[in-house]
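Q: How would the C-alpha cells look for this protein?
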Amino acid sequence: MKDPCSCGRVATFEACCGRYLGTGVPAPDGESLMRSRYAAFVRRHAAHLLATWHVSTRPASMDFDEGVKWLGLEVKRHRPIDECHAEVEFVARSRLQGRGQRLHERSRFVREDGHWFYVDGDLL
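A: Here is the predicted structure in C-alpha cell form.
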C-alpha cells in the first residue's frame, strides 16, 4: 500500500488521517481525532495538534523530541460518554536513542461546535 496511515487503520494516509491534518475537516469522533493526533506526532504536524487541543489545556506552542521514532499505535478502547464527550485508551510505542518507550494513556475528548478536541489524559 502506498503511504499507509501511521494510526494503524488499514488505509492510506490520505484516505485516513490525512483528510483531517491541516484541512479544517473535523474528525467524526474522539477515536478518529486521537488517531489523527498520533499521525500528527509521527509527521511533526504541530498546527494540527494545537488546533485540536482544547483551549482550556492547550500549550502556547509545540516542540518535538528530536530523535523520537514512532513505531505504532494500539487503540485499546473508545468509550463515547455522550454525544459531546468521549474517552480513548491507547498505547503508543516509540524509540528514542535506541530505547523502546510506551505511552499508555486514557485521553478525554470534548465536542464543541461540531469539532472534537483533546482535553487531557491520565497515564496508565
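The chain has a mean pLDDT of 96.

The first strand starts at residue 69 and ends at 82.

Upvote if useful.
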